[in-house]
UniProtKB/TrEMBL annotation:
The gene is LOC107663955. Its EC number is 3.2.1.21, 3.2.1.45, 3.2.1.46. Residues 1-21 form the signal peptide. This is Cytosolic beta-glucosidase. Residues 543-560 have a biased composition (Basic and acidic residues). GO terms for biological process: carbohydrate catabolic process.
Length: 560
């Protein structure tokens, strides 16, 4: 009993220290500063990423079950131009080709996800295990290790199994609205640990649960397409947090001693910068933005409960709307203890920054996650925006975010699990100078953060390939490699950014000004030949199509 009391006191003191440390973050210091030359610590890991549904294709091959994205994308009007991920990059059939690209880039790691319905077609472990799916990921993992590339594996990148005994899993159980998903997901994760854990040492439970919750259950922009405004996102997130914690405890109890691996989570984290750093209301709004976005998931996993600002705002608005309890679920004392401390490392996926200012929404306004935090997002029209409408290049936010995480959460081990930029065009131009500039500026801000003492251990460029971009279909391209989706074989062509990123990897950073200035010039030179290859392939494809479309002329035979 005494030992238990001492342990709880220690946990309380640790929590108090972490909370106190968060007060050290300076919201008024936002200068980007000059470019900093230097290298990352020895052993820093460089990689690239992907996800199963976005790249694999083979949506109904070799026993794979349907996912919610298979069903969602097949509904007309849900995806730009009614695109689907049915074929995507055909990555399921091109493991050797894609690993050759990684080897050429000298990547240290590759981040990918396992498709839950590919190995458990019904989503339920006791129903049926698909050996073909297990074999596919066995081959991928083995081939990566043979080429000295470390696999970092995501267990859930949005492709929830859809079918269960001829009934929709989503309809029967409500997907992440239902707490029963916690056990289903734990069974799936445990199977992955059993089959792959002797070789995989870095596990990510969920990628960007914010999007799963908000876009899947609040706005309906993503699968499963539910619009449960004001409640759906909060309920889904609550179950996702508990599912993550259960998987961490399962690994900790059953596998850690044997396999010596680590389990973390990947949180998407756009940064919010106060419009006026001298205005306290803007500073408070910016902190609310970060807490409602990032702290929503990080704070329970590190401190055992939701951010106080979320509880205050949602609770007050719920009361004003005549509700007897908050729309934000609560953790029991046992659950708080259970979820706290369940991150061996923290994955951070970061792409952009917004300016934030106060905006009060009246209490009679319709329930919504987006009105609960009383703020408005703004952008500077001078910020570069080559691709996605939400993605502006604002490098200084990356260093600010990493510094915030260090002070707020007790200096955790961080892996950057996604950072990159898109182009919004059906482009055949492989000389992506804007992406090289983005990588240069963002990676340099990460270097500054490391020099500041932030414990960043690795960086993942997003993404290895152009791929299916969810509700945007194939209209946006994040890849370092161009994929010709119009060709049956989906050939890959390196963009200039491949050569640029290779030089950052080989130098482990930015050694000196003269060398760095030559990188972009040399990279642009190499993309010219790739453009010529792509143009030739397209000409040949058009010629073949024209030949195939020509009317057939059959010989005329005289009647006998």
């Amino acid at each position: 009993m005494l030992q238990h009391s001492v342990l709880r006191i220690c946990q309380f003191l640790l929590l108090a220290l972490c909370i106190f440390a968060s007060e050290d973050f300076d919201w008024t210091k936002n200068e980007m500063g000059s470019f900093q030359y230097g290298t990352f610590p020895s052993g820093f890991s460089w990689g690239a990423g992907s996800s199963a549904y976005q790249t694999e294709g083979a949506w109904d091959k070799d026993g794979k079950g349907k996912s919610i994205w298979d069903v969602f994308s097949h509904k007309r009007g849900k995806i730009h131009l009614n695109d689907t991920g049915d074929c995507s990059c055909e990555g399921y059939h091109k493991i050797k080709d894609d690993i050759a690209l990684m080897k050429d880039m000298k990547l240290n790691h590759y981040l990918f996800s396992i498709s839950w319905p590919r190995i458990l077609p019904s989503g339920i472990k006791n129903d049926y295990i698909n050996d073909k799916g297990i074999e596919h990921y066995d081959n991928l993992i083995n081939m990566l290790l043979e080429n000295r590339i470390t696999p970092i594996v995501t267990l859930y990148h949005w492709d929830l199994p859809q079918i269960k005994s001829k009934k929709f899993l989503e309809e029967k159980y409500g997907g992440w609205q239902n707490a029963s998903m916690v056990n289903f997901f734990n069974d799936f994760a445990n199977l992955c640990f059993e089959r792959f854990g002797n070789r995989v040492k870095y596990w990510i439970t969920f990628n960007n649960p914010w999007s799963v919750a908000v876009e899947g259950y609040e706005t309906g922009e993503h699968a499963p397409g539910l619009k449960m405004r004001g409640t759906g996102a909060y309920n889904a997130a609550h179950n996702i947090i508990k599912a993550h914690a259960k998987v961490w405890h399962t690994y900790n109890a059953q596998w850690r001693n044997k396999q010596k691996g680590m389990v973390g989570i990947s949180l998407s984290a756009d940064w919010g910068e106060p419009v006026d750093i001298t205005n306290q209301r803007d500073i408070e709004a910016a902190e609310r933005y970060v807490q409602f976005y990032f702290g929503w998931f990080a704070t329970p996993l590190f401190h055992g409960d939701y951010p106080q600002i979320m509880k205050d705002y949602i609770g007050r608005k719920s009361a004003q709307q005549g509700l007897s309890s908050s729309r934000l679920p609560t953790f029991s004392p046992h659950e708080k203890s259970y979820v706290r401390g369940t991150c061996d490392f923290l994955g951070i996926s970061h792409f952009t920054t917004s300016y934030i200012t106060l905006k009060n929404f009246p209490s009679n306004h319709a329930n919504s996650y987006f009105t609960d935090h009383d703020l408005a997002e703004l952008v500077d029209p001078q910020w570069p925006d080559p691709g996605s409408e939400w993605l502006y290049s604002v490098p200084l936010g990356f260093r600010r975010l990493l510094s915030f995480v260090k002070t707020q959460y007790g200096d955790p081990v961080i892996y950057v699990t996604g950072n990159g930029v898109s182009e919004k065009m059906m482009c055949t131009e492989l000389c992506d100078d804007w992406r090289m500039q983005y990588l240069r500026d963002y990676i340099n801000e990460m270097l500054k953060a490391v020099k500041d003492g932030v414990n960043v251990k690795g960086y993942t460029a997003w993404s290895l390939l152009d791929k299916f971009e969810w509700d945007e279909g194939y209209s946006e391209r994040f890849g370092l490699h161009y994929v010709d989706f119009g060709s049956k074989n989906k050939p890959r062509y390196p963009k200039a950014s491949v050569q640029y990123y290779k030089r950052i990897i080989s130098s482990n950073g930015f050694p000196n000004q003269r060398e760095i200035e030559s990188w972009k010039r040399k990279a642009l030179e190499t993309c010219t030949s790739s453009n010529q290859l792509l143009a030739a392939a397209r000409r040949k494809s058009k010629e073949n199509k024209a030949h195939a479309d020509m009317p057939k002329v059959w010989p005329v035979h005289d009647e006998v």
